[in-house]
Amino acid sequence: MTKILVVALDACDPDTIRAMAADGEVPTLARLLERSASATTRNPYGLFVGSLWSSFFTARTAARTGFHCWEEVDTKTYERRLTSPLEIRGTPFWETLSAAGKRVAVLDVPHSKAKPLNGVMVCEYACHDRHFGFHTSPPALAKEIETEIGLTPILTAEPHLVRDWAPDDYLHREGDHRTADEERALTHGLVDGIELKTQLSTQLLAKGDWDLFLTVYGESHSIGHQQWHLHDPEHRSYVAALGEELDPIRSVYRQLDTAIGEHLALAEEDTTVFVLLSHGMGPRYEGSHLLHELLRLLDQAASEGFQGSSLKQFAKRKVSGMPALASGVLPFLRRRLARNPLPAVPNWATPEQRARQRYFLSPNNFVFGGVRINLEGREPSGVVKRADYEAVCDQLTEDLLALVNVETGEPVVRAVSRTSDHYDREADDSLPDLLIDWGRSGPIETVWSPKTGVVHGPDTHWRTGDHRPDGLLLASGPGFTPGTALPDMDVVDFGASLSAMLGVTLDDDTDGKPLDWATASSRTPARSE
């Protein structure tokens, strides 16, 4: 009978793990990299920051889960509102397994809520994302965990408090940014939390005869956001003295490596083991804090033509020679801004502004910007006629690609794509129409184009790291040949594949399909070592 163990590391950067494995710092993962079958995991394009895990457990595309960001603009009122995972559409695949009589244990899958299962479920014990507070199924398990193991110092701090931000965003941070002592306290708290989570996870693994045991570690997500600048010497906020003393990323990753080893030690010989590094991390350089003002100015330029400064009028005459123009203008702008710094632009619009503009910022976390077209017949005060939709998108794409980072001289935007190029849209969705892939070579704080002029806003956010799209799956056990490269896999297929391995088919209202390696007829015995 098939048994499956999944240990997932939320937002644990695959490239960093490979480098640490080569240096001998993560011996368990080094062995897995050498001896497992592996696949690159492809996450929802442009929307993966908020929708990766909901697509993972519902086996639905990001366009069909109804949840892609922690906030959105209400499509009926233009008002900004907070969202909730309770709005996620679709059935978690472990509920389908449970209903089919499989024994399942599910720990800390982001954006999930505990429901009765044929087994156990633990939510927000050591999870980066906080929505409902620490809770379990059965409910009495939460008290047992708190009494016998204890709560983690960071991710289960204030365990029953509902907050809009993750615990790692505000703990050990009194000011806008952490002091050296606060940085140390956060790192040590997350490392200690991994030890407690491993006690909980391995105890539950040892107690049950599980068909599926799925545990997710959130500390890799937290440390990547908060302390990437102490890992990356090229980061603008790198502190050499502290970074040489304490590399938080490596400290957390080493502890996670130990945690994986403790789980593997409990796995039976015929258990199929998956280790999932859900997606990557890197420095947080993006321009979302400028997007509202950029869109306002571009809309104004489209409606009224070039207005304002003589520099814009000059650009109007020379706009066809954009690259040469930029190279000539930027030194002048740098000198002028050095003498007279600009005030920061507003980073959010009012509902009234959104209703008037042809397009507006559509919340999409930060890695990819989002733009919603104010479309007639869809938005309540739509001003763009459906016949003009394509032309408006084309022109806005061209204008966004013309934005230049004044500090570096490089494009602000790497690419702009239509959400409909990647997803089958639903009529009532709140998704952006355009997805902006920011240029991430450095901070984006002062931007210029012929149509917008200079737009300035310092990026003062305390998070110094942010996500990268792809992840890594390591698979070992019956049916997987060590060292082989499996085809790239879409995250929506993972739940369907695990279910198929256990002889269960998900319902027809899912998008994920079992991969070849999940079907018994296509699986080959593992080589003995």
Describe the structure.
The protein has 529 residues and is an alpha/beta fold. It has 2 domains: 4-284 and 466-522, Alkaline Phosphatase, subunit A, CATH 3.40.720.10; 288-460, no CATH class. The chain has 16 helices and 20 strands. The strands form 5 sheets. It has a 9-stranded mixed beta sheet with strand order 7-6-5-8-1-9-19-2-20, sandwiched between helices. Residues 519-529 have a biased composition (Polar residues). InterPro entries: Alkaline_phosphatase_core_sf, Phosphodiest/P_Trfase.
Q: Which features characterize this protein?
A:
2 domains; hydrolase activity; globular; alpha/beta; Alkaline_phosphatase_core_sf; 4-stranded antiparallel sheet; 17% strand; 16 helices; Alkaline Phosphatase, subunit A; 529 residues; 9-stranded mixed sheet; Phosphodiest/P_Trfase; hydrolase
Q: End-to-end span in angstroms?
A: 22 Å
Radius of gyration: 24 Å
Q: State the share of residues found in helices, binned by percent.
A: 25-40%
Quickly count the helices.
Answer: 16
Instruction: Summarize the main sheet.
Output: 9 strands, mixed
What structural category characterises the helix and strand content?
alpha/beta
CATH homologous superfamily of the largest domain, by name?
Answer: Alkaline Phosphatase, subunit A
Strand ordering within the main sheet? 7-6-5-8-1-9-19-2-20
Mean pLDDT: 91
CATH topology of the largest domain, which one?
A: Alkaline Phosphatase, subunit A
What count of domains describes the coordinates?
2
CATH A-level architecture of the largest domain: 3-Layer(aba) Sandwich
Poorly predicted parts:
308-324, 521-529
| C-alpha geometry | globular
Give the strand tally: 20
